[in-house]
## 1
Amino acid sequence: VQLVESGGGLAQPGGSLRLSCAASGFTFSSYKMSWYRQAPGKERELVASIASAGGGTNYADSVKGRFTMSRDNAKNTVYLQMTSLKPEDTAVYYCNAATSWYPYDYDYWGQGTRVSVSS
């Protein structure tokens, strides 16, 4: 199982970045996919999630209206389009895949991609 994030980097306040997470080694379309982030000195927090085949999304209040999560089940990839970036969006962003098939829970993480927002 692999989750490989990409697209992080340095952006100016008000700028945009697009993160990608390429998945392999599991049935991607059956998994709920999420983006989490962890800022220095803070706990990891959920940013956005998207349901498996149906594609319904949820967002943290702090990113609603600015971030958009999407998935391409044909490419086994999820995306996080980030716009109107703020310095407080600076964090390492992690991709997560999760599902439950009774009696087991499956939960996978990527290695993270760093996003820095600064002028």
## 2
Amino acid sequence: QVRLVESGGGLVQPGGSLTLSCAASGFTLDYYAIGWFRQAPGKEREGVSCISDSGDSIGYADSVKGRFTISINNAKNTVYLRMNNLKPEDTAVYYCALSFDYGCSINREEYDDWGQGTQVTVSS
């Protein structure tokens, strides 16, 4: 059974950092792309970052380029999202998702299975 579990969210001050984890079970990340998405209250879920099965294709939304870094640890079957210089507008529930048929993409329509999400709040 495919399962994705996010962790690492929390409350952080503007300019601070957090690292989110997406632990996968029931399948191996060696063969599928993973995306990170976020949804703020009253807003649509938006793509943040993605990484291909091989890890050689990576993408970021313009709003997070230069601040967020996605990485993968295949031995731990886990994908990470390192978030630096956080801003209040980064506040949202962050989700990771699995794509069976597509490569690295921040289009949520191309993802099949989702985790439950982890809350990130950036506030002073």
## 3
Amino acid sequence: QLQLVESGGGLAQPGGSLRLSCAASGFSLDSYAIGWFRQAPGKEREGVAYISSADDATYYADSVRGRFTISRDKSKNTVFLQMNSLKPEDTAVYYCAADQRYGLVISGTYDYWGQGTQVTVSS
């Protein structure tokens, strides 16, 4: 069974950091494009960071560029989202997703999705 499981969410203060993990079971993430998405209450889902299946090139939404970093550890079959300089507007449920298409997949239509992890930024 193909499964993605996010972890690492929680409460952080403004200016703080969190690192989210997306672990895969049942398949290898090596050849998959990965995206991190978030959805805040009453808002549409937003793609925030993407990593290519081809060469690990990355792309970020303007709202997080310079603060968030997406990376993959092939030995752990895990993708990470390092979030620094957190802001209250980063509060949302964060989801990782995997897609079999080649390269960067800057899209909301991914093949596999995790269940999400809550990130709350508040003092």
## 4
Amino acid sequence: HVQLVESGGGSVQVGGSLTLSCQYSGIPYTSFCMGWLRQPPGKEREGVAIIERDDSMNYVDAVKGRFTISQDNAKNTVYLQMNSLMPEDSGVYYCAAGRRAYCSGANWFRNMDFEGKGTQVTVS
């Protein structure tokens, strides 16, 4: 039984920071990646950041230099540190997991097999 549970969302002022956490369990793959997706209000879902088991990571251009993805494999937890937040960062943020073979390319977020219920981030 796969579970991904996000936490840490909330409301923050422009320029502020938030850290999202995703605790996961039951992922049935030996090689997999963890990622963060977001869906702004009225817009399509997009991939924000992804990290593989060897800590290689990738970010969408819009968040490079402001967001940092990290993981604690011992705790089965992935984090997304978000700094210098802007209104366009608002949306529901989802934690996702997928097979390593599908963890690259601009559309990696479409190939994730498991996803959490999301946590709301509002920047104003």
